[in-house]
Amino acid sequence: MAVALRALRPSFAAEVDGIDLSQPMDAGSVRTIWDAIDRYAVLVFRDQRLTDTQLRDFAAEFGPLEIGRGALQGGRRRLVLPQIGDISNLDEESRVRARDDRRRLDSLGNRLWHTDASYMPVPVVLGMLHAVVVPPASVLGGGETEFADMRAAYDALPEAMKAEIDGLVAEHDIFWSRGQIGFTEFPPGEREKYPPSPQRLVRLHPGSQRKTLYLSAHASHILGWPVGEGRLLLWDLTAHATQNQFVYSHHWRVGDVVIWDNRCTMHRGRPHDEMQPRDLRRATTLDSGSTLEQAA
User: Fold this and answer.
1) How far, in Å, CA of 57 to CA of 51, rounded?
2) What digits encode the pLDDT tens for the residues 234-256?
3) Domains and CATH numbers, the chain
């Protein structure tokens, strides 16, 4: 079947028809998806029904897979495969977590605009979310995921600002981002496992050869600048990059798979009725090196 792309926003986010992600991928299909990612950064596949094993195997076609912070914490998990992240409000027995549950409070940080794992020395490339259970619409929202186009945001900056920020390096820290929402209850030894990591503020996206902002709630300050001054710059750039003209909001349906490129997007989850289950499964591919080692 021929693959068809329908842009959801001009040059950002596209719906893809004609690919069954549950089936093994040949090299041509993988290349087609990569080309679409390089062009649109966010891809939406509807009506996919994947097991966790199928999601893992599909994601592995695009690079080595991350085992996320939640799986590495140890203890019993709801999901068996460590490469599949549990992006849900469900506990190990598949019950809705209590409002004051520690893991739920930690996960509220995902509602900040962020880039996945930018606090790691080698960050991630592709994120892939598969919707298994979607909550009904409510006055609180429907648990949408919003994506911001960081290439377009960079392009829209004044030339003088581009020149000012092109060589800057920000320090990214998971504990800084969680602290912004008042969450500080980490297991013993957790802070030592995840020290801050420096990342370029402006990157060259290798697929499109376009420059892109690399921002995240994890970005604490600019190295070499007074902390307060660097934070104000990061807040101003984030406000610029998340204006409506740069944002696609995804309204989830069961069976959706959304792929996004963390190198040139930010994203955030939106609120929903926490008394209703929401179950998304995530796979994430790793980059090959630090942003400091890559061309800017």
Assistant:
1) 10
2) 999 999 999 999 999 999 999 99
3) 4-293 (3.60.130.10)
